[in-house]
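Fill in residues.
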């Protein structure tokens, strides 16, 4: 009786198990066939995609970017190594060990900015470049070498030092006496100032390229118009000027602003350290000179005493004779 009841239960469950199993397999096969038919790799357009890839030519893509810069495809571009070689040859002397790292970084980053097809030099960039070099080389031990470093660095990037200095001085002179709000108005494109012209050109160029030295040029303008030279204050000002006034992405500019103040702090610490070293060296030199003077004075006194002793002995011998 128990056997027959178990047999009946198994017989009743068997069809349902086989039904669920076959349905799962069928669904899996159906979904697989559907996914294959919907995947591009199995579609009939694969040959068209391959033809497009095979027939691709650099600078000939059907896009606005390619139409603007396509003529530069295959152009010979100077390498960073070539820029370093020119910098070293022009300088002709080793860079001070304390400044070697930052000079290496400046040569490389400046070269990579300038060789970019989207790069356009403007007075804000020039002002930032001059500000950076002045900050870095302000306390260089040999100022004649510092001037050579500046010249070699700018020339190795394919730029003209006199033109860079003139543009920076012109924009700096224009900014004298201006306020933060006046700079913001110019960056919005209002008026006929050189800064307004730069901002309008940037807004009109879909592919306008921001560079680190452009951001530092804006930081220098902040300093000229009296914005507090603090990292957080400059961050907010940079966000307003680049993001709201120029209508460009501002995160990189704000990051470069923070980096500028961090590097400035390190350079200030290095300046303090070098001054302390200089003071110690001067003190040591003064101590050595004082020791030499004391020794010379003692020697002179000893010579005088010796001369007196010789004279006295000679007088005695004369009297005894």
């Amino acid at each position: 009786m128990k056997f027959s009841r178990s047999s009946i239960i198994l017989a009743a469950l068997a069809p349902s198990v086989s039904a669920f199993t076959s349905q799962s397999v069928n669904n899996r096969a159906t979904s697989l066939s559907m996914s294959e038919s919907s995947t591009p790799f199995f579609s009939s357009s694969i040959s068209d995609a391959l033809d497009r890839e095979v027939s691709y030519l650099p600078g000939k893509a059907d896009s606005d970017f390619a139409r603007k810069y396509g003529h530069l495809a295959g152009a010979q571009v100077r390498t960073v190594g070539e820029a370093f070689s020119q910098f070293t040859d022009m300088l002709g002397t080793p860079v001070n060990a304390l400044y070697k790292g930052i000079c290496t970084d400046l040569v490389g980053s400046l070269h990579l900015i300038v060789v970019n097809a989207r790069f356009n030099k403007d007075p804000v960039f020039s002002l930032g470049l001059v500000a950076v070099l002045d900050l870095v080389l302000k306390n260089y031990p040999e100022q004649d070498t510092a001037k050579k470093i500046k010249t070699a660095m700018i020339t190795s990037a394919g730029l003209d030092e006199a033109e860079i200095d003139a543009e920076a001085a012109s924009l700096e002179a224009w900014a004298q006496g201006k306020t933060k709000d006046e700079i913001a108005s110019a960056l919005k494109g209002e008026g006929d100032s050189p800064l307004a012209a730069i901002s309008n050109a940037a807004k009109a160029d879909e592919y306008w390229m921001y560079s680190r030295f452009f951001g530092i040029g804006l930081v220098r303008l902040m300093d000229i118009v009296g914005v507090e030279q603090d990292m957080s204050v400059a961050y907010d000002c940079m966000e307003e000027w680049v993001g709201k006034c120029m209508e460009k992405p501002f995160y990189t500019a704000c990051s470069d602003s923070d980096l500028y103040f961090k590097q400035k702090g390190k350079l200030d610490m290095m300046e303090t350290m070098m001054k302390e070293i200089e003071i110690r060296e001067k003190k040591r030199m003064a101590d050595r000179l004082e020791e030499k003077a004391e020794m010379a004075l003692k020697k002179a006194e000893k010579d005088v005493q010796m001369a007196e002793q010789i004279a006295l002995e000679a007088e005695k011998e004369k009297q005894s004779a």
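The radius of gyration is 39 Å.
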